[in-house]
Design goal:
Length: about 725
Amino acid sequence: VTSLSNVHPYVQFALGILTAASQLLIDQANLDSEVFGLLNTVKDLYEFLMEKDTLENIDSMKETLRKISQEMSATALFVVKYCRKQNFLVRIGDRLVSDPQTVARGHIKNLGDLMQQYRDRTMRDIQINMYHVLEDLNLEGMAYAAGAGLNMTKKCLDGTRTEILKDITHWITTRDENAPRILWLHGQAGRGKSAIAHTIGSLIQDMGAPGACFCFAHDRQSERREEKILTTIARDLADRSPAFRRALSNIVSNNLALKTTCDVVQQWNRFILQPLSKISGEIVGNVVVIIDALDESGPDTSRTHILRLLTSADAAGLPTNFRILLTSRPLPDIVRAMAAVPHVKAASLDNTPWELVERDIKVFLSKGLEGLPGIGVEEVQNIVNKSDGLFEWARVACEFIRPSKAGATPKENYDDLMALEDEEGRTLLDTTYFTILKTGIPRTGTRFKRYRSVMRQVVMTLEPLTMAALNCIRKNFPNERDHYDINLILEFMSAVLGGVVDRSSPVRPLHASFYDFLMDPLRSGDYSIDISDAKDLAIATLRILRDNLQFNICGLESSYLANVEVSDLPERIEKKIPCHLSYSCQFWGQHLEKTEVDLVLAGQVRDIVGSEKILFWMEILSLLGRVGKGLSVLSSVRRWLLKGNSDFEDTLTLAEDGIKFIENFISPMLCSTPHIYVSALPFIPLNTLLSAVVMPKLQCSARINVGGLKTWPAEQLLLQGHTW
């Protein structure tokens, strides 16, 4: 396999699995006749994959080749269990089978049928033999970064980036035990790093190989994904490898503290290194972990420990079939960490030969501008020449040229684009961003004021929201003149923002470079966005809480059921807790912290934390599974109040009581929302201000008459500021 770097990535993956599986069989001294026949079939398949006719027809038969690879992955799992004399259970058709001869015959038949299907250029439904895990291995409760995984819409266009994709695939599949365990793919913004990462991730998924894809994103920094990176990767690997799942389950079972730890060093040791050490040799083929856009994790400190782990001796000693593909811009802290590390292979997209970049951008533009009047081969080549090798600029150029402005043809838009030149202090990409904004938004008058207000809301929102949710929040802004539909502004910005054309998607910059452009006045000039004050968002989120919080908002009938046991809870949440309310519950404190302290805002905070509404707010966090967010919110509120004077002392005490309430009762709150009132509230210390405020208003709730706590346990003071 090490000499096959020029074949298609699909074939490279299949051959890698084939080689590893066949070597295991060859090493066995005694083989049953059917298993020996399987070895011969593997040999036939290897020769088939290397035939000229096979290689020439890959593009039209990718689906069959994908199934061949999946069947080989299943075959490899059988081989491991057979060679180790382990028990297994396989579904063949409608039957569950554990006899090795029957299983081997099933694999031989499937592989033979798939090869014939490929030769015949036909597509038939062939059922892949699926292995069933006999144990009940529950990983529920492990922290998981939802939405951080593979995004198929970000893949490279077919026929582009073929050389780098083959190089990466060869690095993944090589049998060289000294191959670097980590490949760091870097380059300036817009080079296409994420597209390559997601293409490799898609390929791994298609092949049925064990792997995980974890992506950072600038507009998701509030989620602190860096604290969940390895728990998420471990859970994804467990979903793809029964052996890894079994080893991980043995480590985390009955240990909630470990499952939810945000300590990445502990995650690395317990969730990655230990399971891998327990299953040495049980995974045939390669395990691939992708970490995309590490530079978007946040400030340098957010990735310090991650970089330290990736460059450690433990990373160098990962199993020989384990690979980590890391992408980022070459930021100084990442460059310092990765430079001259023996087990890290660095590859720069900035150094890709121009003729390859030119070819790929031309393919991309030809597809994106296909059919537009006045845009032919010459125009496409001119755009390629102007792109400076940036795929993001090519994408923006397509959006710029497509008909979007009243009274302008694609050819006229093209002429405007070609007239753009680098300006002092701006790259061509910045100049293009500036022109898009200038074309849609004049720099004076009402529209410009609205642009600044809307974009300030978009970039200051701590979690991307749909246009509908943003409008609901905007209707609660303090100035009624701001209560307009944000589409008045955003409809002119679909070239740079997602969620404008497809309104079911959140509004977010299509590329991190546009966010950077808006944040830097030297680059964006009058169109720069000031994010120093979040008063509008603070007031709006507080008003939304004031008007929408209510007791038992989802109408739960019983405290005998855990939240996960309420079968229609997702439907209830969707109906009763709309996105703007969910967002406000999770982030009102963070927006408050970015404002100046004043009496009016402090009064609105008191209305929440100084009434039963604080419990209704906790209800929503419990229903959403985000109780830990309550600690972050109230910690922000506490810091904001400490900037004020003694007039806010009672409100500060109530916020601190709320922090201690969550810290003491987070387990029952996470388990069952009604248990806020059944298992938490009765035990609130009698001498606390929170008790004095809420207990008189909840006369029917249970109480501890004798022996209850008077004040909060002293050890809880040590947990202030801790995040869950």
